[in-house]
Write a structure and sequence with these properties.
The protein is of the alpha/beta class and 353 residues long. 18% of the residues lie in helices and 34% in strands. The chain contains eight helices and 23 strands. The chain has helices spanning 37-41, 105-112, 122-132, 156-159, 184-191, 227-237, 249-257, 344-351; strands at 2-7, 12-17, 24-31, 49-53, 57-58, 63-64, 86-88, 91-92, 101-103, 115-118, 135-140, 165-167, 174-179, 196-201, 213-216, 244-247, 262-278, 284-295, 304-310, 316-321, 326-329, 334-335, 338-339. The strands form five sheets. Strands 12-14-13-15-16-21-20-19-17-18 form a ten-stranded mixed sheet, with helices on both faces. It has a seven-stranded mixed β-barrel with strand order 1-2-10-7-4-3-11. A two-stranded parallel ribbon has the order 5-8. Strand 1 (2-7) and strand 2 form a beta hairpin. Helix 6 packs across helix 7. The radius of gyration is 20 Å and the shape is globular.
Length: 353
């Protein structure tokens, strides 16, 4: 079926449907990863997005089985469902080949009721967004009503858990994990450290609980909409010596709690190859990222320092307190079950408990 992608500025691209057939609107972003579409689609940070894959051939290894690990967490996806609203590609491969594949990408999108669009000049579309910035867009189907314009609501409350969940009750130190749109890779990384993890909703009051540290997860949207989470982090800060770690959106929330300001990037960081350098060193890391906002550098209060920076646009990638055990990173330090060279942030956090 021939369908149309209409950007907020009126620019239109034509393509064909290979997923669920219904009109949809959202914020359109591009991701430069060559593979990993199951993880990207199921990352809660992508809620509300129309996702463009810049790599031209997508779908050739299908969708892998949703097996679970020893903690009961899915190992081939980052959550139990797709969170992005649509997937836009140049060339969709209907035929797939992988020893662990159970269905095609198109079949999965239809089952999850997510729009798929192929035959789009994604190179030209990406160039347009790089020039004009991320914007809202609509995917329109013939003889179906136009979707309503996308509005930027609090997406965190849509992807957070609804009640506290306890993992590994016989673990060692207990930490609170604030779920703002949690990737399973973060939870798995903490559990592998032998920690007892209490996963709580984004607006949950855990101030009466006994715990040894707090991790603020990744998530979608604007951190300024997470006022309740910011208040809870500020309460933890009043206990001064409790370790705090913010990842992705969690880093932005930590920044707000400390009095920093954030701003929206022109087209965000959505990729698996963002270069990050550690300040005052020659250590550089290739990182996975999925966010639209960054910390405003000139808003750092006394006692805080920037310890990592993006080599593409010089934006802040890491913050740390000079006296307290508080830190945050804008990148994800894990890729499902395979640790990367930035997994040291978990080691640093655990060493402070």
């Amino acid at each position: 079926m021939k369908i149309s992608l209409i950007l907020a500025d009126g620019t239109t691209f034509q393509g064909e449907s290979f997923g669920f057939e219904q009109p949809v609107s959202g914020e359109i972003v591009f991701n430069t990863a060559m593979s990993g579409y199951p993880e990207l689609l199921t990352d809660p940070s992508g809620a509300g997005q129309l996702l463009i894959m810049t790599y031209p051939l997508i779908g050739n290894y299908g969708v892998l089985s949703t097996d679970k690990d020893e903690f009961g967490l899915t190992i081939n996806t980052q959550s139990d469902r797709i969170h992005t609203k649509a997937l836009i590609v140049s060339d969709y491969s209907e035929y797939f080949s992988h020893w662990n594949a159970v269905e095609s990408l198109g079949e999965w999108l239809k089952r999850e009721k997510v729009v798929g669009m192929t035959g789009v000049d994604t190179r030209e579309l990406t160039r347009h967004l790089r020039l004009h910035g991320t914007m809202t867009a609509k995917i329109v189907f013939p003889e179906q009503p136009m979707p309503e314009s996308y509005s930027f609501n609090n997406l965190v409350k849509e992807v957070s858990c609804s009640k506290p969940i306890l993992y590994q009750t016989d673990g060692g130190k207990k930490i609170v994990l604030i779920d703002c749109g949690l990737k399973m890779g973060i939870l798995r990384s903490l559990l592998k450290k032998g920690l007892c993890v209490v996963r709580v909703p984004w607006d949950y009051d855990f101030s009466d609980m006994e715990f040894n540290g707090v991790v603020i997860s990744n998530g979608p949207g604007n951190p300024s909409m997470c006022g309740r989470t910011i208040e809870m982090v500020q309460k933890v800060m009043q206990r001064t010596n409790l370790p705090l770690l913010g990842i992705d959106l969690g880093c932005l929330i930590l920044g707000h709690a400390a009095g920093m300001d954030t701003f929206k990037l022109k087209f965000g960081h959505h990729t698996s190859n963002q270069p990050v350098i550690m300040n005052n060193t020659e250590r550089c890391f290739i990182t996975t990222q999925n966010h639209n906002y960054a910390i405003r550098e000139d808003s750092l209060p006394d006692g805080w320092a920037i310890n990592m920076r993006n080599l593409n646009d010089s934006s802040v990638e890491g913050i740390t307190h000079l006296e307290r055990p508080w830190s945050g990173t804008m990148f994800h330090s894990e890729s499902d079950v395979i640790p990367t060279d930035t997994a040291f942030i978990y080691d640093d956090f655990v060493s402070k408990l």
